[in-house]
Amino acid sequence: MDNTVEIPVLQLAKLTKHFGDVIAVDDVSLDILDGEFLTLLGPSGSGKTTILNMIAGFEFPTSGDIVLQGKSINSLLPEKRNIGLVFQNYALFPHMTVSENIAFPLKMRKVPKKQIIEKVKNTLDLVQLDGYEKRFPKQLSGGQQQRIAVARALVFNPPLLLFDEPLGALDKKLREHMQLELKRIHTRLKRTMIYVTHDQEEALVMSDRIAVMNKGRIEQIGPPDELYEEPINAFVASFIGESNLFEGVAGGRVGDQLTVRLDGGTEIILTRQEKITEGERVRFCIRPEKLFFADDAATRITFSGTIVESIYVGETKRYVIRINDELSINLREMSTRTGTGMGRREGENVRIGWFDESVKWLA
Amino acid sequence: MSQQQNGKVGKFILGTFVGIIFIFLVIPTILVVPMSFTETRYLVFPPEGFSLQWHQEFFTDKRWVEPTIFSLKLASLTTVVSLVIGTMASLALVRGIIPGKRIGHLFFLSPMMIPLIVTAFAVYGMFANLRLIGTLPGLVIAHTIIGVPYVILVIMANLYRFDTSLELAARNLGANAFKTFMYVTLPLIKPGIIAAGVFCFIESLDELVLVLFLVGTTKMTLPLRMFSEIEFRIAPTVAAASTVFIVAAIGTIIALSFIEKKEKSMGLKE
Q: Whose CB has fewer CB within 10 Å in chain A, the N or C terminal residue?
């Protein structure tokens, strides 16, 4: 619909950071579009926080460039960058009231007093904490402190907002609430946001795009559904959601069928793939919820096995099914049609099946 | 049941022990107060009669007023100089990216470990050459030598507990390094600065060894006046001076606890 070429708000070009011998960030290139909510997702030590610190100006890149709105900000001091940042521990000034905290960036920018009062009020409205002006941060709950930190990062209208695992300290209920709250603020203000987290669920809920990071590199970048449905490698497949990972050697083709000999020795018959040649090492995955019990259906591809574990987790029931000594498979079934004491039991013999398109080939 | 009894016995022993310490440490100090109101011309206990003449002498006699003012001047200047040097040194030792931080730390604390008499002797030799003996600047410098370690100990502890993300947050929000220090770091280490300042002030007000070496012939500090009074005439004015000291000390403690209370209400302290 929109024909204008989108100019990225922020560009990372071949960004690299070494700490001594450790390569924290390794040749990362990334464009963040205007109004986008992008999440850097990865385990601790994957380099996501280092990238954030370099964008904020707390760390200087070993090589590469950071370009904000068309201008390189590599050599700018943090206070000259005009980027909002919400810290992991909020970093609210304990000796200042809520309104003094929010007014701080405006005061540093020498905004007239009258405007400061108005902007503080509007921003407090936005995070739904009007009436708390005179309180000190320690007198607020974790969730309220979080909102104040967001307000303080928003109030000076930065073109880019950074979030460094800001919900980590909150309990699950509050975290889910704050996720939606941040999402609401993002939708309303259409501000570009970069969000760092190790929580894949959080990333899926909030992001327009997710960059999955591992060992200082971006493994895959894309919208949440794409990452979940089409992971390109085993790391992404296992970091986002759960996966049954299979590794083996491709065997011969018979008609439109392809036999794969798994590393444990089990043979599995899949639909033929044009790209795969005989003798090639292959990896693929199937999500546990894409498997189903196939005792009545005439599904072509099936496994027989025994349920060795059956765990009830509310909306789903998880099963571990032992196929043979080398191979166990995870299966997840919605609780839609089960009730108390229903579902399958441990020790039961079952046949499981899947559809062709559920098999995802990995690099 | 026997455990409960053990607890009681333990409490009794602890109570007695604390009581004995209290008697030996605090009572002699408190006894000075009634002794200052005696009518006699010499110190006695118990005091005889009631008179304010010794207090009056302390507040009016030039022999007492001048050393008191001089001591207050000396202590105030020492406090300011020690706080400035000590705070800057602490920042460098905690935050600075400089080589030899550990050695620097030990260097600044060394006056605390070296016997005062040695410092006094060493400073005396140097000050004689520099013609600083008997001058206010000379005494301020000497007292700063022993004041700075107190400041460094307190402020460094403050800085180590300091959440550095607050300083990063200030920078991120548009404050340069200087403004970050003025608006964030300084207010947050203020309790430490006040405590260190009180230490320095009392240390200087109370100090006698360095003064004996460096005071020369023209100046007189309050502790030195008291010391020479006791040597020569044991007049109750010494007790009156001590009483004023005690009252000032109690006043300071009350003032500090008020500050602490205020900070607690702001949620700055747990």
A: N
Concatenated DSSP letters of A101-153: HHHHHHHHTT--HHHHHHHHHHHHHHTT-TT-TT--GGGS-HHHHHHHHHHHH
Give the ipTM of the model, two decimals please. Answer: 0.82
- Do the Cβ atoms of B168 and A136 come within 8 Å? no
Closest in A56, A58, A136 to B267, CB measured: A136
Report the candidate in A9, A14, A10, A8 with the shortest Cα–Cα distance to residue A61.
A14
- Separation of alpha carbons A32 and A34, rounded Å: 7
Percent of chain A at pLDDT exceeding 90: 49
Residue A39 in 3-state DSSP?
strand
Q: In this complex, do B168 and A91 lie within 8 Å of one another by their Cβ atoms?
A: yes
Which of chain A's residues have a Cβ under 8 Å away from the Cβ of B170? Answer: 93, 104
Question: Are residues A138 and B187, on separate chains, in Cβ contact within 8 Å?
Answer: no
Task: Identify the closest residue of chain B to A105 by CA–CA distance.
Answer: B173
CB A186 within 8 A of CB A208: no
Judged by CB atoms closer than 8 Å, whether chains meet at A93 and B165 is answered as: no
Set out the domains of chain A in order of their start, with CATH numbers. 10-238 (3.40.50.300), 244-362 (2.40.50.100)
For residue A339, the model assigns a pLDDT of: 66
Q: Which pLDDT score is estimated for A197?
A: 93
B194 touches chain A (CB under 8 A): no
* Secondary structure (DSSP) of B181-227: IIIIIHHHHHHHHHHHHHHHHHHHHH--HHHHHH-TTT---HHHHHH
Cα A198 to the chain's mean position, in Å?
7
**Tokens representing residue A307 in the block:** 């349920």
What is the per-residue pLDDT for B174?
93
* Mutation site for A-interface testing, chosen from B168, B171, B172, B190 by largest number of A Cβ within 10 Å: B172
What's the pLDDT band for B270 if we cut at 50, 70, 90?
very low
SS3 for B123-135, per residue?
HHHHHHHHCCCCC
SS3 B81: helix
Q: Please tell me if residue B3 touches chain A, with a CB cutoff of 8 Å.
A: no
Q: What are the residue ranges spanned by the domains of chain B?
A: 2-35, 64-265
Supply the pLDDT for residue B57: 87
Global pTM? 0.80
How far apart (Å, rounded) are the C-alpha atoms in residues B166 and A33? Answer: 30
How does A221-247 read in b/e, with b if 16+ C-beta sit within 10 Å? bbebeebbbebbbbbbbebbbebbebe
> How far apart are the C-alpha atoms of B30 and B28, rounded to whole Å?
5
Non-local CB neighbours of B187 within 8 Å, separated by 6+ positions: A95
Q: Is B189 on the interface with A (CB under 8 A)?
A: no
B173–A87 CB contact, under 8 Å: no
CATH number for the segment(s) B64-265:
1.10.3720.10
pLDDT for residue A179 is more than 80: yes
DSSP letter at A324? S
Q: Which residues of B touch A94 (CB under 8 A)?
A: 166, 188, 266-268
Provide the shortest C-alpha distance from residue B153 to chain A (in Å).
23
A91 and B187 within 8 Å at the Cβ level: the answer is: no
